Amino acid sequence: MKKPRIILAMLLAVMMSVALFGCTSSTQPPESAPPAESSPAESAPPAPAEDTADELSGNIILAWWGNPTRNEQTTEVREMFQAANPGVSIEELTVGWADYWTQLATLAASNDLPDVIQMDISTLEEYVGNGQLMDLTPLIESGQIDLSNVPEAVVGLGRVDGGIYAVSIGQNAPAMIYNKTLMDELGIDVPNNLTIDQFVEISKKVYEDAGIRTNFALSDPSNPLEFLVRGDMANMWVNPAAEMFQPFFELVAQGASEGWGYDPASFIGRAGVVEQDPLIAGGELNTQSWVTFGWSNGLTGLQAAAPEGVVLAMAPYPSHNPANSNYVRASMYFSIAANTDNVDVAAGLVNFWTNNVDAHKIMLGERGVPASAVVVSTITPDMSEVGAIMLDYVSMVTENSTIPYALRPAAAGEINSQLRLVVDEVAFGTITPADAAASFAAFAGNLL
What we know:
It is built from 19 helices and ten strands. By secondary structure, it is an alpha+beta fold. It has two domains: 6-172 and 329-388, Periplasmic binding protein-like II (D-Maltodextrin-Binding Protein, domain 2, 3-Layer(aba) Sandwich), CATH 3.40.190; 174-326 and 411-447, Periplasmic binding protein-like II (D-Maltodextrin-Binding Protein, domain 2), CATH 3.40.190.
């Protein structure tokens, strides 16, 4: 078990649990396409976690990025695990999306990572490459982490260089989450699988009729950009070229010049904070957005934080070829630090999180569709209306996608940071879409 550490104590003292909905994405493609998660497995349900609980004892630290709903649920599940394992103590380390990775990098630099780490697809390869995550294969083969009810394709989502370094704790799909109440009031229908032209037409009409803008490229521009590039059956993380990116930057420029695009100056301080998302934050009309580009599991946190009477809905991102663009992926993982002092407790927690039905009756898909097919089939009748919408949405995307999702490379984070800067420059008119595409392609190419 890890001893108390000065740097960790300092971080815990200053961190607040702030919001995040959804994740981003990291190199080698999964061995097969993600399955339709709603199909129950034929194998027997996993043994109750209590069967091995009496043998577990020790202290570990659990880290995750969160939002108010997720934080409350995680604490409740953590307490449930500890109640079944009286000899276990778990310290929580949670913060919002943007600050999470800064804090985690600080801990990693001091070889002080938490024992169980909520990991994202965009950072998995980086931490594996640095030797900071444990290969879970022996724990899976021994049954300490029981993945017998997890489809092999889902298990493969955590595989890097032949080892399994992460267990998916949810699956999701890109989702354009929008204010359905507003759209109904304006008489605007938002169909699934919008074309780019349809999306622009809707954005213009909302701005003209209500004065509300469109935020499609500010929350995490790599997601809508990657979605568009996939429509051409291309991979922006392999041999990036200016022609891949110019249509996206032209859309950013069009929104800025015509007024319906969200102003980057109004977005400062809002990234990764659910309550500050322009979709639900209120304020002056020109600081609101009718839509946010995120992930299907983000609907839970956003709807919980939305003003009373506002109903949100989801549709896939716009694309000229939705079948190519759409995909399902791991929304987030649990990994175990390579230098943990309590492997058994860490593995026990990951196993409990994967298989315990009662735990998932608390979470009900907030982190995405559970990995275990048995869990999915068991909790489905208990899902809230929002949870049921999320499950149906992921199933719909699964049925309407053709290209499996590939992990992003280790350089994805640095590339995405540069993309944010270039998007702002295009929106402010300091660079043309063509020049933006060329410079961004060169930047990405040098790192890849």
